[in-house]
Amino acid sequence: MITRTEILQEIGRPRLRAISVSLGMEVSTRKAKAEILSGLISSRRFSTAEMLERLTHGELKAICKRANVVPSSRDKAGYIHGLTGDDGTLLKAHIIASLRKQGFRHQKGRIVPPSFEDKETIRTVHGLAVQHKRDRARAQLMRYEKALLSRIAEGVSLDVTEIRPRLVEVVSDSEDELLFRYACLHWSIPISSGYGRRLRFIVIDESNQKLVGVIGLGDPVFALSARDEWIGFTPASRKRRLQNIMDAFVLGAVPPYSYLLGGKLIAMLAASNEVRERFKAKYGTHRSLISGKTQDGDLALLTTTSALGRSSIYNRIRYQQRQLYTPIGYTRGFGDFQFLNGLYDEMLTYAKVNCSPTAKQLSWGAGFRNRREVVKKCLASAGLPSDLLRHGVRRQIFVVPLALNAKQYLSGVDDTLQAFNFSADEMFGYFRERWMLPRAARLQEFRAFRSEDYGLWIR
User: Which Pfam families does the record match to this protein (predicted)?
Assistant: First the structure.
């Protein structure tokens, strides 16, 4: 590692002046190189790395060559790391480079997210994270892809009048789990695996044993202002009744059923008796790790967010004169998907060496509480602002009451839940007549779909 003075002495006067100006330092056009150099060397406002970030890739490469410094990699971040020897500097450079690659802009010293005026822009900004998730899954799933594709229907052979959907709970280490994971890789945003308690279903068409869609439920986030205001949560009622809420981390249909508005069917089935009853059976005697209390297993409410801004699917689902999905607002555009493109692995490795976890209870176990904590710790350690978590994608939030008095029960007004009677079979019967058959008669594009079109790696 060489000193700041040695590094800066390798840079010509025009570039030194440009660096000074970009850092907000006052430099007259008449100042000699020695004066500019002295100001930069003595400055405590900026690190050497921050100064080097103003140089081009070619300039950094030339400095390393003249100083006989071996970079840790051949990108700009690697040259800066080679010159400074600071792992935090390398991580910072990688973070900034990754964000820029996703469309974020460096503006007046801040990283600014793109403008998300259309759904295609949102898909694009998620592209790196989606591709990374597929790349990681490839080693395990590619060998099964041919078998998995055999469970995807051919549009030309689909008899719409014979479709009979059935909910099948996903069991760990099963072929159904592989199918669930494989389907989730096709979403245009990276799908979480869910947190804490988890309930996963695939929906199978009994007429041909092909996959219709997937449902994934997991623990809700502790604090969600739109949800908490809609319910009327107090700190006490939220602590008591958050156990009666689950968040749908994935809901959707696969082709060719998606062409027949199958996404609406999957959204409806998530609110069915069968899902609620399975939750009761699985978690009715579950003991919470955090509170230490046994849960009652009464599922009163689902929450979910749209993938791409405002949702046209959820907004128009009515059943038994009720709107199943109630829009209650938008997320703040705050999260960590922008770090899930391979960068998070580097951040986790860095955090384990350079950061300390802040677990609040011994019973939670050692280590970092969640991914968000790792990202926050790394940003702080690398000298980056926590507002880099503000990606700007605002997702529409929906609540799905599963009982007549869901709000009153969750807020603590009522002690007994009056659950709706939503049979999966009856829901499908309604969906079939209301949406599916008219759609199939009107648009025949589903006929052109081939299962091989669904392949990720085999073409």
Answer: DruA (PF14236)
